[in-house]
Amino acid sequence: MPKIELLHVSKTFDEGKVVANDDVTLSIEDGAFVFLLGPSGCGKTTLLKLISGLETPTSGTILVGGIDLSKLNPEERSIGFVFQHFEIFPAMTVFENVAYGLVVRGYDDETIEKIAEEALRLVSLEGRMLAYPKELSTPELQKVGLARAIATRSKILFLDEPLGKLDPKIRKVFRHELRRLIKSLGLTAIQVTHDQEEAMAIGDQIIVMRQGKILQHGKPEDLYYRPGSIFVANFFGETNFLEGFVSGVGPDSCVFHLHLGGPKFEIKLQHGHQLKNHVQAIIGYRIEDVELIQTKQEEREPGEELDLEEKPRLNTVKGRVREAIFIGPMKRFIIDLENGDEIQAKHSSKFLIDIREGDEILVGFHENPMVFEYPKDIRAELSKA
Amino acid sequence: MPRIALENVTVTRGGKRILHGFSLEIRDGEYFALVGETGAGKTTILNLINGLLAPDEGRITIAGRDVTRSPAEARDVGMVFENYALFPHYNVYKNVAYSHRVRDRDVTETRKAAREILSLVLIPNRDGALPKELSGGMQQRVALARALMCESGILLFDDPFSALDAGLRMSLRIELKNLARELGTTVVHCTNDVEEAMMVCDRLAVIRDGRIAQLGTSDEVYYRPSDLYVASFISDVNLFKCSVTRVDEEQGLYILTHKRGNEEETREFRVIAQEGAPVFNEGNDVLLCVRAEHFYINHGFRKKPNRVHGVIDEISFLGHLIRYEVKDEYGKRYRIQRFVNAKTRYLRFQKGETVTLGFHYKLGLLFACPREEELARFENV
Q1: Between chains, do A384 and B291 touch, taking CB under 8 Å as contact?
Q2: What is the pLDDT of residues B299-343, one digit of tens each?
Q3: DSSP track, A208-230
Q4: Distance CA B119, CA B148 (A)
Q5: Which of B181, B315, B317, B325 is the best substitution to test chain A (most A C-beta atoms within 10 A)?
Q6: CA–CA separation, A119 vs A148, rounded Å?
Q7: A200 contact residues in B (CB cutoff 8 A)
Q8: What residues in A contact B166, CB-CB < 8 Å?
């Protein structure tokens, strides 16, 4: 029932001077777990307020379950909220905290008990019903917040950094529990986070917002492998962007020149691409896709790398390893290319064990990079702050 | 002489012992990371160094000088907090110049030093801006600049990046490390994120319940974790309770038997112990630990041991990593983490697919089998 649709929704403040949401059209399917991401000030909070009815759009229509939100009374548009700062009442037991919202709504005792116990069982807190918040661990407190939202019996759940207070280790386990719970209850959920990894790990879909607009909306793998813009490529995962210009642009390939007179890459293009010939362009490589090839043929440990039959051809540039950082399962390299560019590479520490700081190497770039037209303001696209 | 030393320090607060006989030496110009769970005592250690907290017992020295009882102002150690802790009503310049202003330093000198540091941390021409007008990343740079103005040459970071976006976090880590190295600053960096600690540090200490569980370089801690706690803290682990059936001392090879589900069926594992690892004898109960990133899926190991069969039960996509959860016929779950790049992108496994997991005999870790209570912290051993 609760499919959420936004049609040309805009929201402005200060008589149109501040545009929080700019012509947003969006559809979230019933039962989807969607992540909303973007830099602070991108309009994601306003968007959630619009969907929850806390704010009214300046223009456009919002439909929940096919019904215009403005025609629903507050009861019918009920949405459960889970926040990072869980705002648990310290003087109430776990049970009372969860039951509170039900008491306010005037349910009878028997119903309250049934719903609250059910909600606590779902988050595996049935054994802690009589405990007070100060006796609980952080993950348990987080679960009380979750149980309280579930107990509202809303079919839509909004979560704002619900795991923000947890240690990374616990967070990685708990996020799967959260997903299983949301899925088992068939809820339509929208979560805001600044943890891109979390969004990719448990989200069905991800919406990236910027300056009040939706930049891209898709499955995690679509955003990671087929980012529609430099901004999205930079926002998910880590990418080396190389600047240069293109020549010989055909329907499915071109030559990329890394700076004038610099190394040339033969690269493939998607069919239907819009790239013009002889223009400035940017190509992007995920840091895990950059290959490092030892030029000195010294004795190596037997490679444990998987041998795939078809090896894509590589464009190579000479480089020098400035830094090799060991990060447990991963090894990260910072490399100065011969043309002066700095790039990074990341590999499983099971491979490439013998590449060290100071080594002269060949850096391999595959033939299928992300290709972008040169943007008007490259610094704004790559800005991380 | 160590730059900073804590000698036999004990801190008790509200009847709870936070640090107990804690000793730590940090070298001059070193980038040192303290990594541990929330509540392990990391922030307490920082507060002992900067003078916000005095120990109940023990001694703290900075560059050989006993500072145990000297106040924070006298130590002048720079500090960067998770929430930046900038003075909200001061502009960028006043925030950065703060420590010099309270010390009545020469105005021209202060201005010069602040300029230099602001350009070093890449905050151009925002002197007049208030913190709230800046992005989170910029605020953290201001906090860093303010800390760098301290004259002790020591910087303490208390989880400085956790409020920032992933991309920014990553680039700031590298920037910070290079900056500290360039300036010769001694840094103590607290975090609960192992990856962050390993990325920035020269050496790190894993802190558990107010004690050092292990101290060493990233490499040492990763390849030779001192105990099960450290191993499971720095990686996702898969555990097998085994008994040693045979030891080939010449090769350092252990042949292990793991009992499955009904206790009658057994499985054999072969492991070559790492250098410096504890020694076990025939008949000993041991715990075999295989990290999530060391399991291969459907890789053609010729030899029979070190293999497990199961069905893919859960998949999570993390960009350059994919995590699988595999369930075997006895319900035991295995966590596997695979590195993914352009070459291996298309080698994917589907939910419900039957797979064979295997690990290299040099990549299994052996620990003495812990007591049941300790073991109970881990699921499906």
Answers
A1: no
A2: 765 566 788 999 999 999 999 999 999 999 888 999 999 999 988
A3: EEETTEEEEEE-HHHHHHS-SSH
A4: 12
A5: B317
A6: 7
A7: 316-319
A8: 194-197
DSSP-derived letter for residue B342 is: T
Task: Evaluate whether residue A235 is within a structural domain.
Answer: no
Residues of B whose CB is below 8 A from A363: none
Q: What's the number of domains chain A is made of?
A: 2
User: Domain containing A305 — which CATH number?
Assistant: 2.40.50.100
Which residue, chain included where needed, has tokens 């006993």? B66
Domain stops at, among A230, A258, A282: A230
pLDDT tens digits, A360-380: 999 999 999 999 999 888 888
In this predicted model, which residue has the larger pLDDT, A254 or A104?
A: A254
More confident residue, B350 or B134: B350
Is the entire prediction scored with pTM above 0.90? no
Give the H or E element holding residue B337. strand B333-339
Q: Is A234 on the interface with B (CB under 8 A)?
A: yes
**Please, how many CA atoms are within 13 Å of residue A19, restricted to the half-sphere of its CB?**
11
B137 pLDDT higher than 60: yes
Cα separation of A101 and A148, whole Å? 8
* Best mean pLDDT range from A226-230, B79-83, B92-96, B372-376: A226-230
Q: How sure is the predictor about A352, in pLDDT bands with cuts at 50, 70 and 90?
A: low
ipTM over 0.90: no
Domain stop point among A189, A207, A230: A230
Same domain, A189 and A299: no
How far is A138 from chain B, CA to nearest CA, in Å? 10
Set of chain A residues whose Cβ sits within 8 Å of the Cβ of B235:
328-329
Rounded distance, CA B242 to CA B153, Å?
A: 50
Cα distance between residue A182 and residue A174, in whole Å: 12
Q: How far is B252 from chain A (nearest CA, A)?
A: 19
Chain A residues closer than 8 Å to B35 by CB: none
Residues of B in contact with A235 (CB under 8 A): 165, 167
Q: Do A328 and B171 touch (CB under 8 A)?
A: no
Number of A/B CB contacts below 8 angstroms equals 122
Q: Is A272 on the interface with B (CB under 8 A)?
A: no
B-facing residues of A in 278-307 (CB < 8 A) are 286-289, 304, 306
Report yes or no on A192 lying in a domain. Answer: yes
A166 with A65, same domain: the answer is yes
Please answer yes or no on whether B360 and A366 come within 8 Å at the CB atom: no
How many Å is the maximal CA-CA distance in chain A?
A: 79
**Chain B nearest CA to A179, separation (Å):** 11
Task: Read off the tokens for A124.
Answer: 């595996």
Higher pLDDT, B66 or B378: B66
- Range(s) of the domain holding residue A59: 4-230
Give me the residue from B168, B194, B316 closest to A384, CB to CB. B168
Mean pLDDT, rounded, for B216-224: 94
Provide, for chain B, the percentages of residues in helix, strand and coil under a 3-state DSSP scheme, each rounded to the nearest 5.
Answer: 25, 35, 40
| Residue A121 located in a structural domain | yes
